[in-house]
Specification:
Elements lengths: L1 H16 L4 E3 L3 E8 L5 E8 L7 E6 L4 E4 L10 E8 L5 E11 L5 E11 L2 H12 L1
Parallel strand pairs: 2-8
Antiparallel strand pairs: 1-3, 3-6, 4-7, 5-6, 7-8
């Protein structure tokens, strides 16, 4: 009985280890510190490591300030694909946003994230510090 249980556990673990059919170069993109109203576009790159075409059915962000763009065509085995993300950098402050992908992989759902800090443009910061000094 113990052997059967052990074999089932090993089989489950090996299945689980091979369940994901695409691998991202980065699952979290850190924008670092960026200026207000600067370019908020970044790209997640992934590879289809499965043996079937990968279809990303949906890409949904955690808020309206982040707009993801998924590949329209299936990504063939061994090929790379991209998820383009555009973050609205108008709002000053720290951000941490999620993009939920729904696909035809075994796990169906994958979450990737962006984070960073939007700061006032340097020219405004200098102007504000000069006004404070007067």
């Amino acid at each position: 009985m113990k052997r059967v249980f052990t074999l089932l556990c090993i089989g489950f673990l090996s299945f689980y280890a091979n369940a994901q059919e695409f691998k991202f170069e980065e699952e979290i993109i850190d924008y670092g510190e960026i200026e207000q109203d600067s370019n908020g576009e970044k790209t997640f790159v992934f590879t289809n490591i499965g043996d079937k075409p990968l279809i990303i059915e949906k890409a949904k962000s955690s808020c309206g300030c982040t707009v993801p763009e998924k590949p329209e065509k299936p990504v063939l085995p061994g090929e790379k694909g991209e998820i383009k993300v555009s973050y609205n950098t108008h709002r000053i402050g720290v951000f941490y946003k999620s993009i939920t992908l729904t696909s035809n992989t075994t796990d169906k759902i994958k979450v990737i994230k962006i984070k960073g800090v939007v700061k006032k443009p340097l020219s405004l910061e200098k102007e504000n510090s000069l006004l404070k000094e007067k």
